[in-house]
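ugh finaly. both done.
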Amino acid sequence: MTETGRILIRGGGDLASGVAAVLFRNGWQVLIAELSEPKVVRRKVAFAEAVWEGWQQVEEIIAVLAKEDVEIENVLQAGRIAVIVDPQAEVVNRFNFAAIVDARMLKHFSPDAISAQIPLIGLGPGFVVGKNCLAVVETNRGENLGEIIWEGSAEQDTGVPAVVEGRGLERVLYSPREGIVRSFVQIGDFVKQGEVVAEVDGTTVVAPFDGLVRGLLRDGLKVGAQVKLGDIDPRMEPSLATRISDKALVIGKSVLDIVENLQ
């Protein structure tokens, strides 16, 4: 595929990775630009982990960390997703892309000069059509999830996760203070209510109910107070930890519809 069949995705978290998977499975070459120390909770389904590990497999798709332009080219030509450390997306000055997907989930408006050069698709709040993007995809769960917005902006972030088997906000674990994360369980483990899942500088974080550890930050990361630390799912289904969410796939399909209409 030529360079015009390439998509740049800013951010490599779980939603971004779901979008990347949909695009990749439909023949697009995908390059993900990430931070130097990405803080991702749902690590088993996030290509951002390649920054730490050198590579990451999500379902059947492999992403590889590339440090030089020649490595990017080699990874893409080998049929992999390329991941680079490039917070400002400076790679757009060196490669051609059919579109940029901003999947950093910024939540607040930020002007973006890149959008004036290459069609930019924004995910969720923080994007306004005609001001910092070409189109927006709705990311809030509900009847509008995945809606392609050609005028205006997405719904505001609710700050409340979807309810799963009666569990909503309590599913999310937050850091109790600023400090270094130390975990005592692994993603995919089952935990009991009250079991210590992690600690931040000695202050423990416990499971609020019996469930599956669906996501957890890496050991050794420094976090601020009230930063999302983990995700406990009441459903006792191990595959939930390693499977791209239905939400991410719906959003990915909408992004695919947009980029294919650009051709």
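ok and the 2nd:
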Amino acid sequence: MVLYYTGTGNSEYVAKKIGEQAKDEVVNLFEKIKGHDYSEIHSTRPVVFVYPTYAWQMPRILRDFILRTSFTGSKCAYFIATCGDSMGNMPKYLKQLCEQKKFTYMGCAEVVMPENYIAVFNAPERNQAVKIIRNADIVIENIADVIKHNGTIPEKKVGAFAKASSGIINTLFYPLVVSAKKFYATDACIGCGKCVDVCPSNNVSLKDGKPVWGNQCTHCMACICKCPKEAIEYGNRSKGKPRYQCPL
């Protein structure tokens, strides 16, 4: 069973590709996470978690969901991390998660996809995004083949920077960077509520027809990138930047 969490569609694309090639069921975890639904998930086949990389680790919102949810059936677990560059030393922390959940760790693979974290970086224009995704297709195909044959994803050597990125940098990233305080709606906002619907942490609500943000933001960029009027900004960091949604 392929279980995915996504903000702007990269991980959904990868999950569906893996499911198609490995002939496996694909499940979007969005409603479960948003609805705090920790009911049992049963799979007779290995569980494949597909998700974006947040500061060189699995998103905490997904990790918390996994820890609270009961998984029955197969205890083998694969992890597929989409990223703009590198997943860092993520496997170290996934092994710890597997120990807690009594999973058999089958490995973690990274898939480089278009950057979407426009609170800090620039997202590519459509043509460049498509090129990046097409380059990722062969990587996805190889991962799916390993999963289909119950193989183990090989380990990658990691250096000092990767270790620091997934360690101390990730630890500092959440309290120092992850905040919704800079989000605001411009006059282009039509009060459609799309931002409310796409927020996995229920951090956005409408007040007098305009979105307001709370303090549970996970920086998935769904609200700003999926706004149909591009009426959401993140301080001055997002101004003039293309919004990103997986184009394929």
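summary for the 2nd one i guess: The first helix runs from residue 10 to 22.
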